[in-house]
Amino acid sequence: MINIAFIVFNYYYINKILGDSMSSKTVDLTKGSLLAHLRKLAIPASTGAFFNTMYNVVDTFWAGQLSTDSLAALSINFPMYMLIMSLGVGFSGAAGALISNAIGAGNERGARTYLSKIITIALASFILAGTVLFFFLDDIFILLNSEGAVLTGAVSYARIIIFGMPIINLAYVFSAALAARGDTVSYRNALIAGFVLNIGLDPLFMYVFGMQEAGVALATVTIQIITSIYLLSRIWKSGGFKGIKRPDFIPDLKAVCEILGQAIPATMNFLTMAVGTFVITWFISAFGRNPVAAYGAAVRVEQIALVPSSGLNMALASLVGQNNGAGNMERVKKSFKLSLLAGLGMMVIILPPVLIFGKHLIGLFTETEEVVRMGYNYLLLQGFTFYSYIILFQSNSLLQGLKKPAMIMWMGLYRQIAAPAAVFYLLCFTFGMAERGVWTGLIFINWSAAVITLIWAVHVLRQKEKDKIISQIL
Questions:
Q1: Is the domain of 247 the same as that of 264?
Q2: Residues 184 and 96 in one domain
Q3: Who wins on pLDDT, 184 or 474?
Q4: 21, part of any domain
Q5: What is the dihedral of CA 341, 398, 115, 323, to 10 degrees?
């Protein structure tokens, strides 16, 4: 009990140090400087995303210190964790879009009701999915060729993660609800504090309590419980539940359809990303272990480089949501253009150091010269497609904020499964480019996906403008 009290105290204290300075009041994003709003939303979100990435690095480090089998057990859990996260990502997308649009329309009561009903539907979905996964855990890991100590460790880790699945995913929903009100600082504070706590909790549960792989999972669940309580308190202070009563948590058919209509595309897009990782790995693995290791190391560098853009994604979704709800399409259009320009500026700043020092960065993960060479070739080629990620993600945020997310799901299927299956096969085997066929194929796939999504997003935006003009005339 003393340890738990100490953890909670430190979590609260860290948040105070970070500056719990954002007002509890909802920020009106329909007025004022768009650049100022974008900066105030994006910078905290990007900072939080960076520490969330480093959180996972801490888990990997401590598992590697335990044993190679423990590291493998956590690695084999990656698809399972992605599956669990996909539901949280989906419902957080729904929360962000619906709440921000309601706030922009001046319907504060509607915003609060949306959150209440999303919590109920999301919890029911998390519990149902977790129950199904729990009973098939052994079969899933055996299907992934796990056995012996790796299988035991993987199952012990997954059981605790599944048990904490509702809490883990509710944290995503709460963070989106706050972002819709213009608060990305609270979640940033939570992620930084969680990263710091994880450094101590992982070894505490793994070694002192002797829980091994399960200790990593328990540390994650413990931190997520505290995170959810903290974020819930921030929502309460912002008036997010003011006037809400028990019947407001009971969803009707219309609410279920509306919420799932926003959540399913985002969930499916995230799932296709997980499947896409397996597709890429399958093609690369045909050419030996070195290309697989090179891809794994290079992608870590690439993901860290893309972290700042994730803050732009969240900021744009909130800006678009509130202004779309207010019917101010001119501000929606300007927000989108401004975020694309900001993303271009990020690329100009981030990309050169990544390409110049790429070999040294990849060398942090491996000492094999051939792996470093292959990984650096990947980074050099991906330099041509870096901005395509920003265009794609920003277009997705625009569509989410406009409450038109269906294209996100279909483009995910194209970018992660359909196009890679055809393009990689053609380049890798027909043209004999080996692993470079994957590196090169990604340029075509990502740019084609970005351009198609951008064209569709602009089309939807223009259609919204036309609909507004027609409604004003009528």
A1: no
A2: yes
A3: 184
A4: no
A5: 80
Residue 287 shares a structural domain with residue 379: yes
This prediction's pTM:
0.84
| Cα distance between residue 311 and residue 331, in whole Å | 19
247-280 tens-digit pLDDT = 889 988 998 999 999 999 988 988 888 778 778 8
DSSP string, 28-73: -TTSS-HHHHHHHHHHHHHHHHHHHHHHHHHHHHHHHHH-HHHHHH
For 247-282, letters b (16+ CB in 10 Å) and e give ebbebeeebeebbbbbbbbbbbbbbbebbbbebbee
Give the range of the structural domain holding residue 278, as residue numbers without chain letter: 259-474
Instruction: Please tell me what DSSP assigns to residue 20.
Output: -
Q: What is the rounded (10 degree) CA torsion for 465, 463, 310, 124?
A: 110
**Structure tokens of 410?**
């279909």
Domain match, 190 and 267 both? no
Side chain identity at residue 325, one-letter code: G
Q: Is residue 472 part of a domain?
A: yes
Asked whether 203 and 61 are in contact (CB, 8 A), the reply is no
Per residue in 373-391, pLDDT tens? 988 999 999 899 999 999 9
Same domain, 214 and 242: yes
